Request: fold
Amino acid sequence: MAIAPNDLTPEMLMFLGERHLGFLITQRADGSPHAVPVGFAFDAERSIVRIISADNSQKVRNAERGGRAVVSQVDGGRWLSLEGSPTVKRDEVSVAAAERAYAERYQEPRPRNDRVAIEISVDRVLGRA
Reply:
């Protein structure tokens, strides 16, 4: 069942705060899916997923083409997929926000000079948690 991000239950939000990796699915130029494990953070107030990445990665190139992106998190029978439109942010403020969110959920990210932030504006959620 699909729901809007502002309809996430407290249990779902708690699940999204637990220390799990997710899979980011984007589309390659030929339309085929590209799936990679990622650390991510969900900003419930803004309905945005934030992911840090190296600027030269395939997921960044895919996100720059627009379209749709999905981050899925699974733990046993609990799972959620957060879907929306991706954008790549290179400005200091956006990258710093993504780094802080990553550090809060996982650990302090290692320093990189080529870091960018992928933001997904979530408009649809699937799953159960």
Summary: The chain has three helices and eight strands. The longest strand covers residues 115-128. The chain has one domain: 2-128.
